[in-house]
Design a protein that fits this description.
- The protein is an alpha/beta fold.
- It is 40% helix and 15% strand.
- It has a single domain, classed as Aldolase class I (TIM Barrel, Alpha-Beta Barrel), CATH 3.20.20.
- An eight-stranded parallel barrel has the order 1-2-3-4-5-6-7-8, surrounded by five helices.
- It is globular, with a radius of gyration of 17 Å.
- Bound molecules: 1,3-dihydroxyacetonephosphate (13P).
- The site of 1,3-dihydroxyacetonephosphate has 14 residues, from β8.
Amino acid sequence: MTSGVGKIRPLVAGNWKMNGLKAGLREAEAVRDAVAGPLAGLAVDTLLAPPATLLMAMTTACSGGGLTFAGQDCHSNASGAHTGDVSAEMLKEAGATAVIVGHSERRADHAETDAVVRAKAEAAYRAGLIAIICVGETIGERKAGETLAVVARQLAQSVPEAATAANTVIAYEPVWAIGTGLTPSPGDVAEVHGAIRRDLTERFGANGHEMRLLYGGSVKPDNAKVLLAVDNVNGALVGGASLKASDFLAIVRAYES
Ligand code: 13P
């Protein structure tokens, strides 16, 4: 089953995590220049999610060429007494069009539950941002044969009722593949992405059929072509390899025919 392949415009997104000082803007500028120049004809969207401290500078320096920008997290409230947090409205004003929510590092480091993630996705919609909602199993869950059940639960409880193909992107990121150099086999990715597609289509109809499903976890220039060719994989969420423009652009180029 191809589930809209050929219809869904893919997205290659870079998550810089807690990396990047002002000097890193040069990498974003190089991505902007390539996306606006030699790669402009590729049928793929591109996005960078810098740390919050760099977001405004990056959107100011690099906008106008097709590259878009995201926050890495947001609070569920629009404003208030939440020291250290950033709201979806603040990200929007800083030039973001999207925000990553429910990344496994947030779920683990900040004890974010599915309910919290869902509230953050709803905050993204409220602010007019696309929610990039992350799901994925731990190594223990995979070994116990619980991958599909875990991902189904995370989807059911983290994705709001108001999700559409326009306001939501799902990122499948197996926790054990993040930053380890390990990846699931293409067959394993196809199995999980196929299950996600079925779940979303059952729940959201055409919107679920057309929602973008990204794979994330050790995506590199040398494995991108294989992973991005898997059925129901509509792009990548890239961590480490998004920090250098040359690596990130090599992954984008996986969409060159
Ligand atoms: P790596 O590409 O460094 O494995 O990180 C993946 C990730 O967590 C992106 O959000």
